[in-house]
UniProtKB/TrEMBL annotation:
Entry similarity comment: Belongs to the KRR1 family.
Originating species: Drosophila busckii
UniProt name for this protein: KRR1 small subunit processome component
GO BP terms in the entry: rRNA processing
Basic residues bias (residue ranges): 231-246
Subunit structure: Monomer. Component of the ribosomal small subunit (SSU) processome.
GO molecular function: RNA binding
SUPFAM superfamilies assigned: Eukaryotic type KH-domain (KH-domain type I)
Chain's role: Required for 40S ribosome biogenesis. Involved in nucleolar processing of pre-18S ribosomal RNA and ribosome assembly. Binds to RNA. Required for female germline development, cell viability during eye development and for survival of dividing cells and epithelial cells during early wing disk development.
CDD domains in alphabetical order: KH-I_KRR1_rpt1, KH-I_KRR1_rpt2
Domain K Homology as annotated: residue spans: 126-194
GO cellular component, one term: small-subunit processome
Region (Disordered): 1-21, 231-260, 275-324
């Protein structure tokens, strides 16, 4: 109940609610429904073969927990199914939905100690299907493992921040806890399967928890404090080597190609008689033969053509051009004097 209702002044139900999470929902008691249920309701769910042994062991505890709410439970090991039913003493109309959620969670490998918490009023459950979110199996396995983290560290941090029990099993993620926490768990799981690392959402939840404790920032925008994720993935599709450039669009159709007769009329060949046409063809053939023979002879004589040699200039010759004559004469005179002496 809200504060205004406690004061004896009931609020108008049509008024907008600023924060629905802060509203207190009144508890539903047996006195509110003294006549009980008009019809019997039942729900059944199947379970896999590997859960048979565990369910057989804990089934007496399941029956005992449901007896407190005036419900019946049946376990069929031949068909592999669990059934919950209402009785004539059942007074809570929604408890059968809670019992249905409990057996669903137990069929998906959630232990009974956790699954029985769904029967409480402030606790709900959410089964998130992730099998169809990623098409490639290897990508699906990697992203599911990213949600669990090394040694289950990421999953444990999600549980601590949302106050929910989370179990990743096959193609589904089972969550159990308060309704606000279930909404946060669903957002994290779906974004993780859409290639957003869960650490971004975990950081955001940690920052929000710190900001909630500060009364000064209660009415301010928190978006400037939260981390922003930027997708840096570039498309790895192979680009074609030779890209075709698109022609400019014109509403007019392309020009009609010339026919063989049109080409003959343009060259004047159409008006020639048979002998003249044959003579022209022979002339063209002989011209082609001459050209082909010329190319063939050039190709054969190519190996016998000597390569062009570059003129070599010796250093000695260049040095001789720069000889100092006066120095050479002096050297010879000196050599003659030594001989005479």
């Amino acid at each position: 109940m809200s504060e205004s209702e406690d004061d004896g002044q009931p609020r108008n139900s049509k008024e907008p609610v600023e924060n629905a999470w802060s509203m207190k929902i009144p508890t539903f008691k047996e006195a509110d429904n003294p006549n009980g249920m008009a019809e019997e309701s039942s729900f059944a769910t199947l379970f896999p073969k590997y859960r048979e042994k565990y369910l057989k062991e804990v089934w007496p505890l399941v029956e005992q927990s449901l007896v407190d709410h005036h419900l019946k439970a049946e376990l069929d090991l031949m068909e592999g199914s669990m059934v919950v039913k209402t009785t004539r003493k059942t007074w809570d109309p929604y408890i059968i939905i809670k019992a249905r959620d409990m057996i669903k969670l137990m069929a998906r490998s959630v232990p009974f100690e956790q699954a029985k918490r769904v029967l409480q009023d402030e606790t709900g459950c959410d089964i998130i299907k992730i099998g169809n979110l990623v098409h490639k199996k290897d990508k699906f396995v990697k992203r599911r493992q990213r949600l669990i983290g090394p040694n289950g560290a990421t999953l444990k941090s999600i549980e601590l921040l949302t106050d929910c029990y989370v179990l990743v099993q096959g193609n589904t993620v089972s969550a159990l806890g308060p309704y606000k926490g279930l909404q946060q768990v669903r957002d994290i799981v779906l974004e993780t399967m859409n290639n957003v690392h869960p650490i971004y959402n975990i950081k955001a939840l940690m920052i929000k928890r710190e900001l909630m404790s500060d009364p000064k920032l209660a009415n301010e925008d928190w978006s400037r404090f939260l981390p922003k994720f930027k997708n840096k993935n570039i498309s790895k599709r192979k680009q074609p080597k030779n890209k075709k450039t698109k022609k400019e669009y014109t509403p007019f159709p392309p020009a009609q190609p010339e026919s063989k007769i049109d080409k003959q009329l343009a060259t004047g060949e159409y008006f020639l008689n048979r002998e003249q046409k044959q003579a022209k063809k022979d002339q063209e053939r002989s011209a082609k033969q001459v050209e082909a023979a010329k190319k063939q002879s050039e190709k054969r004589n190519k190996d016998f053509v000597p390569p062009t040699e570059e003129p070599t200039t010796s250093k000695r010759k260049a040095d001789d051009d720069k000889v100092d004559v006066s120095a050479l004469k002096a050297k010879l005179v000196k050599a003659n004097k030594k001989r005479k002496s």
